[in-house]
Specification:
By secondary structure, this protein is of the alpha+beta class. The protein contains seven helices and seven strands, in the order ααααβαββββββαα. The protein has helices spanning about 10-15, 20-40, 55-60, 65-70, 80-85, 155-170, 175-205, and strands at about 75, 90, 95-100, 110-115, 120-130, 135-140, 145-150. A seven-stranded mixed sheet has the order 2-1-7-3-4-5-6. A hairpin with an 8-residue loop joins strand 3 (about 95-100) and strand 4 (about 110-115). The protein is elongated. The N and C termini lie far apart (about 85 Å).
Length: about 210
Amino acid sequence: VLFFFFKQKTAYEIAQRLVGSEMCIRDRVSTQSTWGLLRKKRMKTHSSVTSSRRKCRKAHFGAPSHIRRRIMSCHLSKDLKNQYHVRAVPVRKDDEVQIMRGNNKGKKGKVIQVYRKKWCLHVEKVTKDKANGTQAQLPIHPSSCKIVTLKMDKDRKKLLEKKKVVAKGKGKYKAGQVEMGLEQAFSLLPLLYQFKKKKKKKKKKK
């Protein structure tokens, strides 16, 4: 009878051959420290707004109808943008839209229904044939459409006027204004330097 004596494996060699739950435990220990470092580096811009993916998705997909209306906005065409000085407006029934993406790209038609529950629009003549011969409306996301003609009424006019006023204040700075701002900033630099010097002296005295 022949006996084979094998060298006993080291802890390092065993760790490389871990399987299933044992491997998960090893990985969890190694990743916890790196994840902690990454979390420390990240910075929140708004303390009142959550950055949790779970909470953001819950807020989006569980949004009530009046918030869904605002989320389901469409960009206006170039002519309408120049006319009303507004970039996007919540889409509504009887607006004429043009599809900008997907298999139906380039098609135009009136909006038959804004289906807020399913986050989609139903556009006229954009249908598919079912197996039984009837036609069904294809759902189209509002982000892949642009409004070509607006259905105008009293409320729509008010909304456009309100948005136009807000847009006026969002204009870019002119070249002269930027130069003035830079000059003022540079003139304040010596004062800041002096202030820092005073602070250092106070610390030394203490």
